[in-house]
Amino acid sequence: MKIYASKIITAGFLCRSALLIGIIFIFFNPGSADSAPIPLPSFQIGVEDATGPEEVSTVLQIVALLTILSIAPAILILTTSFTRIVIIFHFLRQAIGTQSTPPNQVLAGLALFITFFIMSPIWNAVYQDALRPYMDEEISYRKAFEEAQVPVRKFMLNNTREADLALFVKVSKAERPKTKDDISMLALIPAFVISELKTAFIIGFVLYIPFLIIDMVVASVLLSMGMMMLPPVMISLPFKLILFVLVDGWNLVVGSIISSFKVF
User: Fold this and answer.
1) Which residues contact 122 (CB under 8 A, 6 or more apart)?
2) Could you give the CA distance from residue 236 to residue 223 in angstroms, rounded to a whole number?
3) Directed axis angle between helix 141-158 and helix 104-126, to 10°?
4) Residue 218 and residue 94: Cα distance in Å, rounded?
5) DSSP 104-153
6) Tens-digit pLDDT profile for the chain (264 aa)?
7) Of 37, 43, 145, 220, which has the fewest beta carbons less than 10 angstroms from its beta carbon?
8) Shortest CA distance to 215 belongs to which of 182, 184, 190, 239?
9) Distance between CA atoms of 61 and 63, rounded to whole angstroms?
10) How wide is the angle at C-alpha 102 spanned by C-alphas 96 and 108, nearest 5°?
11) How many CB atoms sit inside 10 A of residue 56's CB?
C-alpha cells in the first residue's frame, strides 16, 4: 500500500513538473503557441537637451517640491505646536501610571488634530498670502516662499524665549539682528524647539505633582498598616483615575495647552 501511494505521489510530481516546463517553454518561445506574445513594458531613463531655461527651472522646482515633501514630517513636528502637545500627553500618562493607556497612536493622533486646530489661523494666512496667489500665477515661487514664512515666523517668535534665540545667534557668530525679521530660520527653528521642550517639561512637572501626592499618601498608609508587600501603585491607580475623571482632566489639560500658545 505504501509503495502504491509513493508511485501516485511521484507521478503527480512529474505531471506538475512537465506542466510547469511547458508553460515556461511557451512563455519564452511565443511562436510555438497559437496565442500572441505577451507584451513586456520597457522603462527608459535619460537626459535630454533642454530647449529653453524654462524647462530647467521647472525640473528644479519639481526636485525642490519633492525634497520638501520628503522632510514634511520634520517640518510639521519642529515648526508647529505638535512637539509640546505630544510630550505633555506622555508626561500625563506616566504621571497617572497607566503605562500604555491611552496607546501611542491615540496620543499622537490627538496631538496631531489639536495641532491642526491651533495652527489653522497660521495655515490659512499661508494659503491666502502665498499658496493661492502662486497657484493663480500672480506671484513667483520665490515670493510665495517668502510670504509663507511670515505667519510661521511670527508664530515661532511669539513662542520662543529670547535666551534660546540669543544662544543660537551667538553660536552662529552672526551679526546681532536689529529686528525680528533679521533672525534667520536656521537659528529660529532650533531655538523654537528647545523652548517648546522646556515649556513641555514645566507643564509635565506641574501635572506630576497631584498624582505624586496620591502615591505618597497611599504608600504611607500601606507602610503604617504593615502591608509592605503590596505594591502602592496597585492601590493608588484607581484613586488617580477617579480624581482625573472627577476634575474633567482631559478638558482641563487640553484647554490649558491650547491657551498656552500665542498664535498672533
Assistant:
1) 151, 152, 154, 155, 263
2) 13
3) 120
4) 17
5) HHHHHHHHHHHHHHHHHHHHHHHIIIIIHHHHTTSS-HHHHHHHHHHHHH
6) 444 444 444 445 555 555 555 555 444 454 444 445 555 555 454 555 555 555 545 666 677 667 777 777 777 788 888 999 999 999 999 888 887 788 889 999 999 999 999 988 888 888 888 888 878 778 777 788 788 888 888 888 888 888 888 888 888 777 777 777 778 888 888 899 999 999 999 999 998 898 888 888 888 887 787 777 777 777 788 888 888 888 888 899 898 888 888 875
7) 43
8) 239
9) 5
10) 115
11) 11
Are 84 and 200 contacting, i.e. CB atoms less than 8 angstroms apart? Answer: yes
Q: What are the grid coordinates assigned to 161, written together?
A: 524665549
Instruction: Name residue, grid cell 517668535.
Output: 157
At which residue does the C-alpha cell 526636485 appear? 63
